[in-house]
TrEMBL record:
<dbReference type="InterPro" id="IPR004628">
    <property type="entry name" value="Man_deHydtase"/>
</dbReference>
<keyword id="KW-0456">Lyase</keyword>
<keyword id="KW-0408">Iron</keyword>
<comment type="function">
    <text>Catalyzes the dehydration of D-mannonate.</text>
</comment>
<dbReference type="InterPro" id="IPR036237">
    <property type="entry name" value="Xyl_isomerase-like_sf"/>
</dbReference>
<dbReference type="GO" id="GO:0008927">
    <property type="term" value="F:mannonate dehydratase activity"/>
</dbReference>
<comment type="pathway">
    <text>Carbohydrate metabolism; pentose and glucuronate interconversion.</text>
</comment>
<comment type="similarity">
    <text>Belongs to the mannonate dehydratase family.</text>
</comment>
<keyword id="KW-0464">Manganese</keyword>
<protein>
    <recommendedName>
        <fullName>mannonate dehydratase</fullName>
        <ecNumber>4.2.1.8</ecNumber>
    </recommendedName>
</protein>
<dbReference type="Pfam" id="PF03786">
    <property type="entry name" value="UxuA"/>
</dbReference>
């Protein structure tokens, strides 16, 4: 535990009894949680400590938390008035996590989140995957209706619409990233917490009038140089990386470049068919890359963190979080690791 390549279960907001037993009975020793919730007490030291202990009561290590609520973070990402207060809160969350013994905080830098244009791309046997087609969205104009957080949260659409008259350029967004990362990295170093950056999904230079920074390898290299710290690394989403120009070649390049520098903190192990401008999510083994090859590549560069399956296709009769599909994808990954 903790020092070799392993699969964890993740991408749920709270540890229910159903989830804890599911994880343990399927052979996982650790989990990742995403976002938790907007309730402030969840992010205080006592709340985080209780969460870690709750996981341990099921025999599960809490590997990481991915994403604070976007409402805590959007002024930082857009350089809006009030970002300093949001940064102060973010710094406190990092300190609280360190004290509570939760070593990794994942984040992204997409104020308008993940965009998809279809939820029903046909896969084998009638299963369905999410898809994106750049032709179906406006890139420069402030039309943000393809964004998943907006689909989930109309309140957040109101926030983004409050800046609908503006286009956010690449240059200014780099300034916002730099301002943020320089403020939080020293706190992360001191707290013993690693910050793990997820790529922009879809990986395109701009959608909805907001420039994206992390849509190719150069963006990550630049961010790594700015941060210049052992506390900076990647939440390497192989699915998003596979949808970048270059597809499987880009996945290989990212693993080799950042893995050999010990900059992969953890990974999302999923795949897509096609690359930008048009791609869709799919089952492992039916996408752009060979899952066995990429697992070997991770091992070869000395990656010793955890991976999760991330998004999974919708399977008929699966409900809510998608236990059937997650069981299949995660089990597939466990099998590959055992085999190599
Ligand atoms: Mn991902």
């Amino acid at each position: 535990m903790g020092n070799k390549l392993r699969v964890a279960l993740g991408q749920f907001g709270a540890l229910t009894d159903e989830m804890g037993k599911f994880a343990k009975q399927l052979g996982f020793d650790s989990i990742q949680l995403n976002t938790l919730g907007e309730d402030e007490s969840l992010w205080e030291y006592e709340g985080l400590l209780a969460l870690r202990q709750q996981c341990e009561s099921y025999g599960l290590t809490l590997e990481a938390i991915e994403n604070v609520p976007i409402q805590y973070f959007y002024k930082i990402m857009l350089g809006l008035e009030g970002r300093d207060e949001q940064i102060a809160k973010y710094q406190q969350i990092i300190r609280n996590m360190g004290k509570a013994g939760i070593p990794i905080l994942g984040y992204h830098f997409m104020p308008d989140g993940t965009w998809r244009t279809s939820y029903t791309v046909p896969l084998r046997g009638g299963a369905r995957g999410m898809g994106f087609d750049l032709d179906l969205v406006q890139t420069g104009a402030p039309d943000r209706t393809g964004s998943l957080p907006i689909a989930r949260d109309p309140e957040y659409l109101k926030l983004l619409n409050s800046v609908a008259d503006r286009v956010f350029t690449e240059e200014e967004r780099w300034e916002y990233y730099e301002y943020f990362i320089r403020a939080v990295i020293p706190v992360a170093e001191e707290a013993g917490v690693k910050l793990a950056l997820h790529p922009d999904d879809p990986p395109v230079p701009m959608v909805g009038g907001i420039a994206r920074l992390f849509h190719n390898i150069d963006g990550f290299k630049k961010a790594m140089e700015i941060a210049d710290s052992d506390a900076w690394g990647l939440d390497l989403c192989l699915g998003t990386t596979s949808s970048m120009l270059g597809g499987a070649d880009t996945v290989r390049e990212m693993i080799e470049y950042f893995g050999s520098r010990n900059k992969i903190v953890y990974g999302h192990f999923r795949d897509v068919q096609g690359t930008v401008p048009k791609f869709n999510e799919c089952f492992l083994g039916e996408g752009n890359f060979s899952p066995v090859e990429m697992m070997r590549a991770l091992k070869k560069v000395g990656f010793t963190g955890f991976i999760i399956d991330d998004h999974v296709p919708w399977i008929d009769y699966d409900e809510g979080w998608g236990y059937r599909s997650h069981a299949h994808q995660s089990g597939y990954l466990q099998g590959i690791i055992d085999a190599i």
